[in-house]
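tokens incoming
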């Protein structure tokens, strides 16, 4: 039984999840073995763990990760891993709507009840890996964008703020108390440093970095 339909993210075509990893965490050895066989039949790399503590001892995997968890041990692990990028599919024989709501509110990709059709479980795992890829891509873009903004001098950053506010060079010069020619120089440098060919390009970069929200208000970003 599937209580929630998670949004689908299309991954870039690649050899069947070669860089991905599915980790099954369950204290029942028969469950671990059964899921391992099923997931390997779909050509997925699988590792199993008897407890959340065992999983946390594992070195961080460099690619996308889907965790298949039982809520009994899984809710605490979900909280511990918040913001780490792993995507979670809960699988249990004793679930209910409140448990499902709790799991999904905390960011789980799916909450499945046993007995579950193999195709449904595999579909949920693949979707979780797709989400994990998208999260990793977004995080990589954010890191690169912040690195680019980090190369700007304080004055270039000030000019960028005014450019994004829609001001003309003459207006920026007046507001910052510098010559219009100087504004043009700073503007040219910041556009080169951020690899932006236009103001919309620059705005997209700052949004990826988290420097500004979607309404154009400045956010705190380490530079």
């Amino acid at each position: 039984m599937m209580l929630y339909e998670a949004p689908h993210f299309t991954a870039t075509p690649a050899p069947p999840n070669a860089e991905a990893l599915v980790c099954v965490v369950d204290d029942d050895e028969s469950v671990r073995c059964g899921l391992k066989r099923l997931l390997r039949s779909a050509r997925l790399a699988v590792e199993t763990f008897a407890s959340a503590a065992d999983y946390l001892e594992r070195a961080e995997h460099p690619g996308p990760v889907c965790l298949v968890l039982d809520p009994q041990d899984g809710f605490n692990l979900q909280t511990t891993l918040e913001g780490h990028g792993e995507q979670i599919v809960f699988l249990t024989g004793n679930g209910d709507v409140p448990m499902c709501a709790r799991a999904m509110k905390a960011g789980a990709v799916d909450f499945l009840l046993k007995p579950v059709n193999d195709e449904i479980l595999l579909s949920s795992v693949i979707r979780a890996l797709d989400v994990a890829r998208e999260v990793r891509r977004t995080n990589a873009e954010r890191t690169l964008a912040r690195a680019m903004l980090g190369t700007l001098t304080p004055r270039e950053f000030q000019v960028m703020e005014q450019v994004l506010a829609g001001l003309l060079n003459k207006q920026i010069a007046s507001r910052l108390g510098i010559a219009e020619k100087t504004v043009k120089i700073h503007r040219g440098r910041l556009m080169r440093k951020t690899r932006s060919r236009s103001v919309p390009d620059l705005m997209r970069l700052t949004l990826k970095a988290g420097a500004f929200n979607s309404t154009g208000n400045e956010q705190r970003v380490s530079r």
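note: The radius of gyration is 23 Å.
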